[in-house]
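User: I'm putting together a small comparison set for a docking exercise, and I want a reference complex before I start. The sequence is below, and the ligand is flavin-adenine dinucleotide. Could you produce the 3D structure with the ligand included, as structure tokens?
Assistant: Of course. I'll restate your input first, then give the structure tokens for the complex.
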Amino acid sequence: MSVRHAEIVGAGLAGLTAAAALCARGWTVRVHERAAEMRAVGSGLSIFENGLRVLKAIGAEEDAIRQARRGLERETRDAQGRTTSNVRYATRMYEVTREQVLAALANAAERAGAEIVTSSEVVSVDKRGAITLATGATIKADLVIAADGVHSRMRDRLGVPCHRKWLADGAIRIMIPRTPAEVASPDGAKNIEYWSGHRRVLVAACSETELYVALTTLDRDYAAKSIPIDKGLWKASFPCLEGLIDRLDGDARWDRFQVVKLPHWSRGRVAILGDAAHAMAPNLGQGGACAMMNALGLAVALDEESNVPDALNLWERRERPLTDHTQRLSTFYSALTTWPGLARSAAFALIARSSWLRAQYLRTALCTPTGTVEPVGLKSRQPG
Ligand SMILES: Cc1cc2nc3c(=O)[nH]c(=O)nc-3n(C[C@H](O)[C@H](O)[C@H](O)COP(=O)(O)OP(=O)(O)OC[C@H]3O[C@@H](n4cnc5c(N)ncnc54)[C@H](O)[C@@H]3O)c2cc1C
């Protein structure tokens, strides 16, 4: 078979993983990124065993987790700092800066032979396998991947209907330096989520020097979601975090959580990948991992089935059930934030006690992504 070529729109977790995985299977690949540089939103990313397996399969794991923090426990605390639950992670989990993961993926893709072009905006896509750039140039390809994120314009250009559900909550994300006391504290090994009514603060170290803080609240909580951060308001909600909240300076950004669902993940020779196809609330820390799993799964399906539209159908049949399951659970968790405190605590206690519920919760993190064991076949993934 002659060498096949892919054009990818978007150098995020999805597009870069697909680039590395396709190049490793003999494709030529060009990735278009409209930004002048691949600079990520300053935030941490939890990557569980499933995501780590994908990173390893494309040769990016070592770079992605170098000097990152291995998370051992997840704890919830009340506004006074009293522990309300503590769970040891059932899989490996690393908390990493988003920037480091993107750099690791870009390096892996380029090592495998991909070309990454920045300041290259794609304005249109054709289901017969072509993209048009902002410069007016049209480029044909055997496969086009629309990995242009939750607000995907390529998805709209293809005419794929998008069902978007805005969730009640969202988060302000910010990175700050760690203090020596934080580095020395045993809390540094944990991801800790503090709760006060519908507001919560996630504190998670990404390395010896960097601390990721996410302030989550309801979208209608206008004062709490404002930027610059209203420190007085957050300190009143979380008296035990006064010192930390005082240090929340620098680039911060609010994002309301949303769920994107499409009737199909492809049209003709175009695959829709990552948040463009299946954005979800970040409550399970699996949105990016699903993007990476599905990117690798896509390359594997294209290896197994030479007809591109048939391969895209095979891919969706195989990968979609787990992504749908993950979206459902993360949406449910978001719904819990709107419940009264007592009902919410009862729900968390039930989840902790019920082995069935815990298995549902852990299913994505514990799965073996397509392409991370050989041989790969339709049976490698349990249907959802
Ligand atoms: C608050 C929050 C916390 C999260 N925490 C986690 C976590 O802990 N773990 C986890 O796994 N996931 C997490 N996620 C989810 C994760 O961030 C996303 O699922 C992931 O970034 C999606 O990657 P993507 O490549 O699909 O899209 P994106 O990262 O959005 O990348 C899309 C890229 O396409 C480019 N682009 C867009 N349009 C064009 C165009 N027309 N031409 C060229 N380029 C274009 C954009 O500039 C961008 O670089 C979180 C999300 C949020 C909101």
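The pocket of flavin-adenine dinucleotide is lined by residues 9-15, 32-35, 45-46, 121-122, 147-149, 153, 171, 173, 255, 274-276, 282, 285-289, 291 (CB under 6 Å). The first strand starts at residue 5 and ends at 9.
User: Thanks, that's exactly what I needed.
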